[in-house]
């Protein structure tokens, strides 16, 4: 099937570069992705950790909206316990209006209990707060006029809502992390691992799918993996291996401080060889990476592949070269060969 491409970004700080340069370069990368024909840009949210140097999704996506005109802009995800729900409603409406309806709303509780604790939140309440905040947000996005709500954590009476989303009744929804939950809600999600595992996840999602809150949009299951492209396989693997060490350190820093395990550890315990084996990362020459992506397109059961290109301590120049090679040797040939 014809494949669409997306970019996943934690806006990890590689070190050695001022924040303003990192931000401007990353906005340039989003523009490059749009020019290359990418369908979507997905920004995560983390706090107080070098894994995320831009912890405000809303500010960054607003800046990206001003720099682009076609690419979809998705939060992946807004950590709902960290927000006042009505403030978030207003900002969702603003991003959706600023982007002329290109915003997609990803939501979740977040996997990092240390971030909750450092923020002053009770991580034991995270699930309940997430559920209640989501109920408020979706109801408020559909309300014109006065909004009221009575819940465990939040109570509102006759609150005037003066802004509304561009997309009605609300933007498309994403819920990564738990396939069954996403399927029950009828919203889009991600699946990692080898192509066969992605195909199994796609099949399971369709078996479990309910219309739910995602009934207003066509949900999708996207495959996700990291990429690093260089001139040769050896060059790419050597540099990606070193960068995996930095990625592991960044992601696990707070967990190590609090002596807590990492849930569903994306770093695979820092084991780069295992990451290669399960296709959590694809590192190689343009020819090797193209073959991997073609195999994904043929066998994954989905038409959407989301790649992370800036991770670990890859420098701005390394990320740009890797992405440009991916765009030239993978994306452009595959898009050109796709049926009209």
What does it look like?
This protein has 340 residues and is of the alpha/beta class. It has a single domain, classed as Luciferase-like domain (TIM Barrel). Helices cover 45% and strands 17% of the residues. Strands 1, 2, 3, 4, 5, 8, 9, 10, 11 and 12 form a ten-stranded parallel beta sheet that branches. A two-stranded antiparallel ribbon has the order 6-7. Helix 7 (195-208) links the parallel strand 9 and strand 10 (221-229). The chain starts with a strand and ends with a helix.
Topology at a glance:
Elements: E1 4-9, H1 19-36, E2 40-43, H2 57-67, E3 72-75, E4 78-79, H3 85-98, E5 103-108, H4 113-119, H5 126-141, E6 145-150, E7 155-161, E8 173-174, H6 179-185, E9 189-191, H7 195-208, E10 221-229, H8 233-257, H9 272-277, E11 281-284, H10 286-299, E12 304-308, H11 316-337
Parallel strand pairs: 1-2, 1-12, 2-3, 3-5, 4-5, 5-8, 9-10, 10-11, 10-12
Antiparallel strand pairs: 6-7
Helix pairs in contact: 1-2, 1-11, 2-3, 3-5, 6-7, 10-11
């Amino acid at each position: 099937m014809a494949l669409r491409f997306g970019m996943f970004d934690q806006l990890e700080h590689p070190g050695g570069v001022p924040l303003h340069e990192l931000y401007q370069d990353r906005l340039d990368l989003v523009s490059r992705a749009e020019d290359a024909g990418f369908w979507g840009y997905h920004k995560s949210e983390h706090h107080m950790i070098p894994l995320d140097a831009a912890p405000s999704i809303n500010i960054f996506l607003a800046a990206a909206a001003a720099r682009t005109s076609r690419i979809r802009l998705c939060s992946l995800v807004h950590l709902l316990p960290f927000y006042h729900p009505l403030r978030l409603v207003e900002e969702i409406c603003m991003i959706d209006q600023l982007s002329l309806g290109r915003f997609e709303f990803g939501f979740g509780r977040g996997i990092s209990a240390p971030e909750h604790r450092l923020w002053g939140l009770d991580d034991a309440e995270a699930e309940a707060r997430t559920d209640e905040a989501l109920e408020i947000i979706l109801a408020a996005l559909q309300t014109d006029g006065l909004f009221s709500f009575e819940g465990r954590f939040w109570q509102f009476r006759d609150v005037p809502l003066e802004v509304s989303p561009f997309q009605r009744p609300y933007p498309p929804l994403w819920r990564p992390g738990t396939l069954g939950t996403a399927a029950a809600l009828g919203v889009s999600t991600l699946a990692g691992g080898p192509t066969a595992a992605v195909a199994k996840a796609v099949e399971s999602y369709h078996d479990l799918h309910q219309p739910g809150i995602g009934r207003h949009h066509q949900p999708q299951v996207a495959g996700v993996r990291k990429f690093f492209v260089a001139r040769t396989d050896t060059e790419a693997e050597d540099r990606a291996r070193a960068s995996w060490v930095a990625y592991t350190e960044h992601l696990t820093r707070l967990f190590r401080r609090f002596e807590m395990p990492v849930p569903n550890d994306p770093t695979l315990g820092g084991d780069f060889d295992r990451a290669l084996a399960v296709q959590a990362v694809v590192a190689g020459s343009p020819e090797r990476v193209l073959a991997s992506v073609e195999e994904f397109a043929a066998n994954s059961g989905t038409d959407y592949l989301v790649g992370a290109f800036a991770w670990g301590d890859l420098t701005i120049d390394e990320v740009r070269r890797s992405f440009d090679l991916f765009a030239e040797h993978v994306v452009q040939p595959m898009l050109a060969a796709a049926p009209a």
